[in-house]
Write a structure and sequence with these properties.
Elements lengths: L2 H20 L12 E2 L4 E5 L2 E9 L7 E8 L7 E7 L7 E8 L8 E15 L2 E18 L1
Parallel strand pairs: 2-8
Antiparallel strand pairs: 1-3, 2-3, 3-6, 4-5, 4-7, 7-8
Protein name: DUF6299 family protein
Organism: Streptomyces fimbriatus
Keywords: Signal
Length: 144
């Protein structure tokens, strides 16, 4: 079994459990050296969506990932699009997440993406998400 779908599912579940307010720290709460960006164009082909951008983070106590989700049209449904393991060394790195979408759930055109740097911190017997940076951005999905 591939690690990416599992990471995407874990991250998506964590975001859903915490709700929008908890999953959306203000820009002031993120360390200035921790950022995530989203490229202005995403790709959609053969039932898969690929999103990308850059990130910068500093060391954490647990595994860190760049997760992403996409939303399109009047529906409030956000669709998780994978998760990439982050290297938190204070330098800028590229991220790219690919995830499958069912049927015609997404199509070429305007979309809204949320990318998050999330750390899974062990807390007793639980593993809780800690959000390092969030970016929300309108993009264009293109075929190919």
């Amino acid at each position: 079994m591939s690690v990416r779908p599992v990471l995407g599912a874990v991250t998506g579940a964590a975001l859903l459990l915490l709700g929008s307010a908890a999953a959306a720290p203000s820009a002031a709460s993120a360390a200035p050296s921790e950022t995530v960006t989203v490229d202005s164009v995403g790709r959609i082909a053969n039932g898969f969506v690929t999103l990308s951008g850059t990130y910068r983070c500093v060391a954490g106590t647990g595994p860190v990932y760049v997760s992403s989700s996409v939303q399109q049209g009047p529906s409030a449904d956000r669709r998780p699009i994978g998760g990439t393991r982050a290297v938190c060394d204070g330098r800028e790195h590229r991220w790219e997440n690919t995830g499958s979408v069912s049927g015609d759930a997404l199509k070429a055109g305007a979309a809204h993406v949320e990318a998050t740097i999330v750390e899974l911190r062990p807390t007793g017997i639980l593993v809780l998400p800690h959000f390092h940076a969030v970016q929300r951005q309108d993009i264009t999905l293109v075929r190919g």
